[in-house]
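Purpose: get a first structural picture of the assembly so the mutagenesis plan has something to point at.
Setup: four entries, given in the order below. No constraints added.
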Amino acid sequence: MKIRVYYEDTDVGGVVFYANYLKFCERARSEAFFLRGLTPILDNGHFVVKDLNASYHASAKLGDLLDVSTSLVEVKKVSFKLHQSVYKDKEKIFEMDITLVFIDFNGKVKKFEPENLELLHSLFT
Amino acid sequence: MKIRVYYEDTDVGGVVFYANYLKFCERARSEAFFLRGLTPILDNGHFVVKDLNASYHASAKLGDLLDVSTSLVEVKKVSFKLHQSVYKDKEKIFEMDITLVFIDFNGKVKKFEPENLELLHSLFT
Amino acid sequence: MKIRVYYEDTDVGGVVFYANYLKFCERARSEAFFLRGLTPILDNGHFVVKDLNASYHASAKLGDLLDVSTSLVEVKKVSFKLHQSVYKDKEKIFEMDITLVFIDFNGKVKKFEPENLELLHSLFT
Amino acid sequence: MKIRVYYEDTDVGGVVFYANYLKFCERARSEAFFLRGLTPILDNGHFVVKDLNASYHASAKLGDLLDVSTSLVEVKKVSFKLHQSVYKDKEKIFEMDITLVFIDFNGKVKKFEPENLELLHSLFT
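Result (structure tokens, whole complex):
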């Protein structure tokens, strides 16, 4: 997943605004679904963020071409955790652990079905 | 409607990113509804932008406190036009004419009801 | 220039937020520079938006893959005008005329040098 | 610090996009400076985010009026940590610990001067 840094991503400090790394990581998560002809809104529910733990190692600037890598850390009954890193050339400039919870369309936490688990493993392992 | 310029609004050029003036104007339109305990999503439909015509006169920077003024230009059967201006101190730095169309929840263009017209006049005149 | 619609681009209305089409068009303008190993910040100046005239024909939703096309309409002494369109499949869903002014690094309007003109023609014709 | 949720803050899921809570918290940090006639860009340096640890407890939707509270957790030689919470009515819907590092205008980490420390304590305690 390649991501170009545009004007909209930068701020007056001259580098990417800190919240925008979370946008880049979301793009990578959704793109995993889109590339298989799916969307992150499944038949029986969708995902909301529960918590995240992020570290900023270096900055990115206008025109940089970044890479986002995503790997599955663990899957529980109603949630899963990913580790996502953003690279500029070979340097890791940002990384986070993020936990997402599965909820139904009434907003209630929902247990994964076997096919949901299979999907998560195929998308992010 | 006062709007402070924060980091998120600026870009590497040091001033407010050009698309963000449209955000500021949208805030002013919605705030007119919120201040009366309403939302821009009405019982019988909501609004989508049809066209806009914007002029950028000067720039705004981090920390600036801006004013947005909104006035009703005309109301037609299914649409209405506003003129919105953004001021920094007394200087007009941005203005646009924007036309919004009324649509129902199936996305079909919808004629205003008399109470919709009354509401528009009370909010924006 | 292909642009995927992600969560960040949508709003509670279920479609792309109206200001974000301006982001998509800015990406296309900057990408023209990046693809040649340049940036839109030139040695002798850079560009600011003077005015734009936009029409919204249809909406885009999460996961859509959009195309942005950009063509040069005219070049004057200190400014140039582009026509930019956003397509979803073959349908034009958004278009705008946008005029950008060339300014130096003190913010003064600046006449294009011959090499600036050459560059604009090579990037956008 | 009161923050209204506008269209731009929401996404197709119907609630505030997860990265936007970081925008709200940044507004509160900068506003502490602005309210004293200062900016977060000091004479001898400015701040960059080093890490953050965020928890999402509940969601916010269009029109909600949120409160952001900010308190100083600790100050070290070159960095400081804040705890920031976002409330909807009396319910805490988001919180994070965030560590910011002080850097000079060449991007080098910089030790706080005594007046910087005094300022941080007066702004955030």
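The mean pLDDT of chain A is 96.
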